[in-house]
Write the structure tokens for this entry.
Amino acid sequence: MYDESSPRDPKTQSVEIEFRPVGDIVKDVKQALETSFSRVYVSGEISNFKRHASGHCYFVLKDDDAQLRAVIWRSTANKLQVLPRDGLQVEIRGRVTVYPSRGELQLSVDNLRPAGEGAAQRALQELKQKLQREGLFSRAHKKTLPRFPERIGVITSGSGAALQDILRVVGRRFPVATVYVMSVRVQGVGAPESIAEAIGLFGDVGTTEPHRCDVLIVGRGGGSVEDLWAFNEEIVARAIFDCPIPIVSAVGHESDISISDFVADVRAATPSHAAEIIVPDRYDVAAALIDARRSLDRSINMQIQESRQRIDYLLTSYYFKRTLDQVLQLQTRARDLEKRLSDAARRLIVERGILVTGLYRRLFGQRTEERIELLKASTADLLRRLHRAFGIQSSQNRTKIESLQKQLLLVDPERPLRTGWALVTKDDSVVTTIENIEPGEMVRVRFVDGEAEATIDSKTAALDDSDPET
């Protein structure tokens, strides 16, 4: 009991006061409100709209002077023709009640219809249209993300969960990358300026500087529309557009769309998704390298095999044998020409000798000494000229024959065999390396004067300690 009587007023009688539980008071207030405000008509702007998994919708209805929490129960939400969204100016019919668990005033919506876009949302749409006209959203300005970034810049709150998500994903997928973090304000007064300044600082690093980042992540974790509003500001949009480094926007959750998402080179649904977009999975990279090496090995082996087949074909081809036949023919022809030239020279000498003899006899018979001497000199000169021409022609023919013999020796496939080498084949293919044979296999060995079959007992790779350049 609580005694409210005053000791100084004898006329005051003692009054007993009963203290009631909080729940009773809230119930009375709830009943009074629902009786007095059983049907109200109110207009305002929707903010912080959320639809629960149960189907109930919760939001804040606000204007310039006040705000009121509101709820749309699932049965009512399923009948609405227009789904509420942030920034939508609406006209609502409902009733005012109290949410007992929190003791909060709440508007229970019975019907809702749009009354136009809210002021903030209209301003956002106007800015979006302005930037689009200027080309800030054009795909022509989008930069390509690097395939294997070595340095990643992150612009977000240093104490937020978004940063930890990014670091965890990068560390798991591509730990060789270095992450540079610049902590900024992501909401509230000064947040847009802080974000834009950080983007500019990353972009000002020279392309030859060791800390120049290959790609940037700009974003934050989820929140209300007001919390994410900094990424809708024009100063942030222009900083992203002017940055020479590719930027991935990662603001809020997948359903949150900001102007930064439109301007950035790539939009990610969440900060974790941004990290997954930027860096490859190291296991995928390793698998790709293995596949590339196998493909290269196959290509090289194929080229070697094709070259071997080509050489074997040439060695056994008609044209190769035809070349040897032509050399032999030229050699025979040269000998024939030499013999014919020699015979012609001898015939000429004999004929000239007969002529000289006849002249000599005629002259001798006349006893003309001067004519005899002249004839002798003419004959001697003729003989010298014939011998000189015969010698020159013979030398030229001999040089030509020797050259043809040398060419023949160079292309002779049996030349190495005559010096002690042997040609090893397996299955009609030339064995060029020890890797082509295995112990127990049969091979054929060709010598200069015949062939033999052999069985490989063992093999030993050659040790080459010499300089490969020598």
